[in-house]
């Protein structure tokens, strides 16, 4: 099973065992290809899925709306990890962390990305895509993605305190779980206009319906599709 990479005893995730989604805010649609190609290059062996947003699209998605799509992908069981971003990267990180079940890091540098993967062992990372995008900005993005996926996640750092660091990370995740509502309950509290907007992102919605088997979030999406008149175009 794809998610057997994370066990109750050892939560270290191997990059080659993950299904990774790439999606960023429409404001940085011109960076999508750069971001996607970097993830493809350095997460070799994983399945990488590009969900946009793309420059040719007419309907834009804000960082808040994309953060909801990130949450759906993760809690819906479609992907194991998401690489995302917005102009600053910070807004997307904060918005993603507002979704139950998402632990998103902010990675402006290669070392930040590596430390997040090793210590915090989250399921999403947000990059600043609108800052200093001369040649050095593109180079920093590629080095950041390279460092993020350079080793299995969750090994702990410093290595001399790895066991304690891993234990602290699991305690933090449990505290977050206890302090958050169920993802489906959270989604039910959203305004209908917001629900319509995220359901309209068919690349995301259909992928969750195809890959999020036995997921309450996938069931929620199916019900909302019926309510709002959306149709499914892929087979399970």
Would you kindly provide a written description of the structure presented here, covering whatever features stand out?
This protein has helices spanning 32-42, 63-75, 90-97, 110-120, 135-148, 162-179, 183-188, 192-199, 202-211, 216-228, and strands spanning 19-22, 47-50, 81-86, 104-106, 124-128. The chain is α/β, with parallel strands linked by helices and 236 residues long. It has a domain at 15-179: Ribose 5-phosphate Isomerase B, Chain: A (3-Layer(aba) Sandwich), CATH 3.40.1400. Strand 4 (104-106), helix 4 and strand 5 (124-128) form a beta-alpha-beta unit. It is globular. 39% of the residues are buried.
What structural class results from the helix and strand content?
alpha/beta
Task: Tell me the total number of β-strands.
Answer: 5
Query: Between the first and last Cα atoms, what is the distance in angstroms?
Result: 17 Å
Strand order of the largest sheet: 2-1-3-5-4
Record the SSE blueprint:
Elements: E1 19-22, H1 32-42, E2 47-50, H2 63-75, E3 81-86, H3 90-97, E4 104-106, H4 110-120, E5 124-128, H5 135-148, H6 162-179, H7 183-188, H8 192-199, H9 202-211, H10 216-228
Parallel strand pairs: 1-2, 1-3, 3-5, 4-5
Helix pairs in contact: 1-5, 2-3, 4-5
Structure in a nutshell:
The protein has 236 residues and is an alpha/beta fold. It contains ten helices and five strands. The relative contact order is 0.15.
Features of the shown structure:
10 helices, Ribose 5-phosphate Isomerase B, Chain: A, alpha/beta, five-stranded parallel β-sheet, disordered C terminus, about 240 residues
